[in-house]
Amino acid sequence: LDDVDTVFTEFVSVLDTVIRNGRNVGVRQKAVKAAMSITSGAYQTGLVSYLTHRDLFPSLMKLVHDVDTPSQAFEPFVLLGLLANYNKFEFQNPYRLRLEDFVNDATIRKLVQSFGFTCTVARHKYITVQDDLPEGWTISNTLSYIGLGALSGGKPATPVLDEDEAKDLFAALPGPEAATLLSTYEFANANKLFCYDLVTLPPENKHDASAFGGFLSWTSYLLQHAHRSSRASLYTYLDLFILQILLEDQILAKRICGDESRTSVRLCRQRQPYLPFVRGERVLAAIILDIMVDGLNHNLRRRLDIQLY
């Protein structure tokens, strides 16, 4: 501690250099993870201030620009969200100022793609606990129903968990990837270009969901299970704040309500009463209204979550 100024100033400087110009993406990501460990572990102390005095923003954005896959941008994005939130009500946080001024569209698109990918991964964890997609009638389904599934030659059905097992698994969700909501909220709150790309960016593959479609799908699952823990509730609030920011922008609201926004989004059907199952593409505004109605229906309790409502 006697040498903390020297040691931590040099430590953060080395991390900054490696994140920016490490010999490969793998090494650069390890430096990000080291910075995340320090930031998270020392969040209630003054040690994080060394990471705010040394501006890591250009290095983090350079790494995001250089990565090959959306999943590789997850750690830099989350670290940025943590740093942008550090003591932000007590002093002018330099990372928040950086978010407002950032206009590199190519890098922002990579962040949006990463966020969409993370939302899909997070939603899949709910589906793994309980697959809620209604199946149409098939010969293999019928044979399975009467105990002759082996004759159909199809894949064995996913084992159904009992109620207590499912309850415990749902209570542990969302997973660690939910931290991406913090960064997304900060970016959406500060940067209009990020908001525009989040709503309008098409999927790379026409058979995949767009980033915004993935976000809405995960929102549906988060909202239906928000009552399970205070942690789930807090992440749901954050999710809804992001949606509120987007909808209060007149240009984006017009886009979300317009016919050009039509897309297909998988909505949660894990708890009754179910909304009608809709196949095909719909206007985004209709999907959002369904998500909100479902959220209201499934969070009715004697001790009502007033903040959520």
Report the mean per-residue pLDDT as an integer. Answer: 90
Q: How much of the polypeptide forms β-strand, as a percent range?
A: under 5%
Shape: globular
Order of helices and strands: HHHHHHHHHHHHHHH
The end-to-end distance, rounded to whole angstroms, is: 47 Å
Estimated radius of gyration: 22 Å
Helix content: 55-70%
Summing up helix and strand content along with how strands pair, one would put the structural category as mainly alpha
Question: Explain this structure to me?
Answer:
This protein has 309 residues and is mainly alpha-helical. It has helices spanning 4-21, 25-41, 49-53, 57-66, 74-85, 94-101, 105-129, 139-145, 163-171, 180-190, 192-200, 211-224, 230-247, 250-257, 284-298. The longest helix has 25 residues, at 105-129. The chain starts with a helix and ends in an 11-residue tail after the last helix. 32% of the residues are buried. The mean pLDDT is 90.
Task: Set down the secondary structure blueprint.
Elements: H1 4-21, H2 25-41, H3 49-53, H4 57-66, H5 74-85, H6 94-101, H7 105-129, H8 139-145, H9 163-171, H10 180-190, H11 192-200, H12 211-224, H13 230-247, H14 250-257, H15 284-298
Helix pairs in contact: 1-2, 1-4, 2-5, 4-7, 5-10, 7-11, 7-12, 10-13, 12-15
Pfam family, one: ARMH3_C
Domain Armadillo-like helical: 282-309
Keywords: Membrane, Transmembrane, Transmembrane helix
